[in-house]
């Protein structure tokens, strides 16, 4: 689920249009897609060390023929606000993974109950080819690490 970008969202007080559901097939088939999973929007590692790299290097992904989705358990309105806070527009998608379907399929969830956050998607990067086949999958050993899912590591996979 995602709130699509519109220029009105440059105003931080603007509310995005209602979220839209999408399927992997409708959004990713026919395109090389990079999916970056983060445990939570605005959290220190995600906000300071992980997602900003994908925003700042979005053009490099486009030049390599790839689209980027940053996904988290947060609701689509939070993800939309986070996209705006990071200065991203429509060059990077910020989507919600409420049911953790993809993360569960990849065995890439992390139990953060001790922090009061419940189960979240782990920190990982996934590259999917236009036929929806997994080209690479790199899951971090812990939610606080950004090594194999770092923007430069992922660009090297394309």
UniProtKB/TrEMBL annotation:
Listed GO CC annotations: mitochondrion; peroxisome
Stretches assigned to the Thioredoxin domain: 1-158
Pfam family, one: Redoxin
Keyword terms of this UniProt record: Antioxidant, Oxidoreductase, Peroxidase, Redox-active center
UniProt-annotated catalytic positions: 46 (cysteine sulfenic acid (-soh) intermediate)
InterPro entries (alphabetical): PRX5-like, Redoxin, Thioredoxin-like_sf, Thioredoxin_domain
GO annotation, biological process: cell redox homeostasis; cellular response to oxidative stress; hydrogen peroxide catabolic process
Function: Thiol-specific peroxidase that catalyzes the reduction of hydrogen peroxide and organic hydroperoxides to water and alcohols, respectively. Plays a role in cell protection against oxidative stress by detoxifying peroxides.
Protein name: Redoxin
Species of the source: Acaromyces ingoldii
């Amino acid at each position: 689920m995602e709130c699509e970008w519109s220029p009105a969202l440059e105003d931080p007080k603007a509310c995005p249009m209602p979220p839209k559901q999408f399927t992997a097939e409708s959004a990713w088939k026919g395109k090389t897609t990079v999916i970056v999973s983060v445990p939570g929007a605005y959290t220190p590692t995600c906000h300071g060390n992980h997602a900003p790299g994908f925003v700042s290097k979005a053009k490099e992904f486009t030049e390599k023929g790839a689209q980027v989705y940053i996904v988290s358990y947060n609701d689509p309105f939070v993800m939309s606000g986070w996209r705006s806070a990071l200065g991203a527009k429509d060059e990077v998608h910020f989507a919600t993974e409420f049911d953790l379907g993809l993360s569960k399929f990849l065995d890439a969830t992390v139990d953060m109950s001790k922090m009061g956050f419940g189960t979240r998607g782990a920190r990982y990067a996934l590259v999917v080819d236009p036929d929806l086949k997994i080209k690479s999958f790199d899951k971090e050993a812990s939610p606080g690490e950004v090594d194999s899912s770092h923007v430069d590591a992922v660009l090297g996979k394309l």
